[in-house]
Write a structure and sequence with these properties.
Blueprint lengths: L2 E4 L9 H13 L14 H4 L5 H13 L3 E5 L5 H12 L4 E6 L6 H4 L6 E6 L2 H17 L1
Parallel strand pairs: 1-2, 2-3, 3-4
Length: 141
């Protein structure tokens, strides 16, 4: 299964450790994650030679070719919000995860799209359970 992982890059790297654990968990569960570069601490430097258009087209192609998307939305990010909307628009299931106690945009939490699942988590056990449930639902789709 191919899972497009979304996490804040330009908007801040506060949750990088969580992103890393999520991507590694997906990979340990036989998921291909084309966006694994997001967990590289130097991702902005690594992409400096790409134009905005190249990054956009690459990411749209990856998202289009994925079975679903998982977004960690604890850190506000215009790009992640766009990716969520784009994925839903092309009928991709999306799991949006956020850390307990964090205020999340109501444009996300108020969205009742049938392919959007939003889960709050307190620890790794809770986000893992949410991912397991989501992946099982995607596999049945």
């Amino acid at each position: 299964m191919t899972i497009y992982f979304c996490g804040s890059i330009a908007g801040g790297r506060k949750y990088l450790e969580v992103y890393t654990r999520i991507v590694r968990y997906l990979q340990e569960n036989d998921c291909h994650v084309p966006t694994e570069h997001i967990i590289a601490p130097d991702v902005l430097d690594a992409e400096k030679d790409l134009t905005a258009e190249q990054i956009y087209q690459r990411d749209v192609d990856w998202l289009t070719g994925s079975d679903a998307a998982i977004a960690e939305i604890s850190n506000p990010s215009l790009g992640v919000g766009y990716e969520i909307g784009f994925a839903l628009n092309i009928d991709k299931p999306v799991l949006a995860l956020y850390q307990s106690g964090v205020f999340v945009s109501r444009m996300i939490t108020g969205n009742k799209h049938p392919l959007l699942t939003i889960r709050e988590y307190k620890d790794d056990v809770e986000w893992r359970a949410a991912i397991d449930e989501f992946l099982a639902a995607v596999a049945r789709r």
